Amino acid sequence: MKKLLLSSLLALAAIAPAAQAHHVWLEQDGKTVKLQFGEFGLNQRETTPGLLDKFVAPRATLLKASGETALTLEKTAKGYVVGGASLAAGDAIVAEDNAYPGWETTKDGTTSQHIWIPAARLATSFAAQQPKLALDIVPTGTAGEFKVFYKGQPLPKAKVAITVPSGWSKEALADANGAVKFDLPWKGTYVLETAHTDKTDGERAGVQYASASHTSSLTVVQPKGIAALAAGPALAPGAEH
User: Fold this and answer.
1) Mean pLDDT of 148-173
2) pTM of the model
């Protein structure tokens, strides 16, 4: 089984707390949408008590052609339930936690602060969408084609992984315009993931930081195709792999 980790995430994991090798994603079951933390391809969803408790102030927003609406997030034993969303084709939900705990590194006697910003998007169709998150993956309007943006601008050569519930995954490199394309042979849910580290100094809540690492996902559903492969056995919350 391939691991749902980009090489850039592996580098991040070497200096960040272990939980930050995870990612967040949005998933829909009927009318219920949840924000999950763990590893989608390993069928791992963190819980409370546990690593889910590291989240400080996750926020979710409904994006429609008519405008944006703030949504509620209710913490449950396994993930956050997104409330107040009435989704139609072409809509999207985005979520992120800009207050997730940072960490320190020390080099040559100098201590530096670093932050991690996990984010996720759920798209209800392959209709073209505009970026909203700092690091964002959006559909382009063509099934299987997506585009990566950072701070509203295309992110060239971004590494993107696509995964299905069975654990199958594939990685590709975006072109000079941030565009990447994947085949979507199976019917069902796909989660794309990308990461980017900005080494520009900044400030959050009055604390200076040396770098900001972003991890972002996009959840899409392929309505047609061959029968989806069965999901693998669930990896226990907090377990390493």
Assistant:
1) 96
2) 0.90
